[in-house]
Amino acid sequence: MNIENKINDSIRPQVDYRLHIDEQTNVITLKIFQGLYPPYFYKEKAYKRNDSASVPVDSLELSRLILEGQNCSYDSLPSHASNLHFSILEKALQY
After folding, report:
1. Residues forming a β-bridge with 1
2. Residue 43: what are its φ and ψ, rounded to 5°?
3. H or E segment at 85?
4. Domain residue spans of the chain
5. How far apart are CA 11 and CA 9, in angstroms?
6. Are the C-beta atoms of residues 47 and 57 closer than 8 Å to each other?
């Protein structure tokens, strides 16, 4: 029960997980299921998998993860600029 409290107190937003404690080997297995509201923070820091390690994300990656959690991407966001020109693209498409 103490382990569950530590998990619940350390990860935000709350996640669904399965905890298994092998009494013979004293091995604890924690499986965290993918949730609906990523990114998730462990002790107020967001992490991502990098091969076999978990590494903290920088602010740019955190912004991308937040958008991904909302099923958005940078290119789907509205632009605040109103005077846009695509002359280079237009020239490239003429050939």
Report:
1. none
2. 50, 50
3. none
4. 2-77
5. 6
6. yes
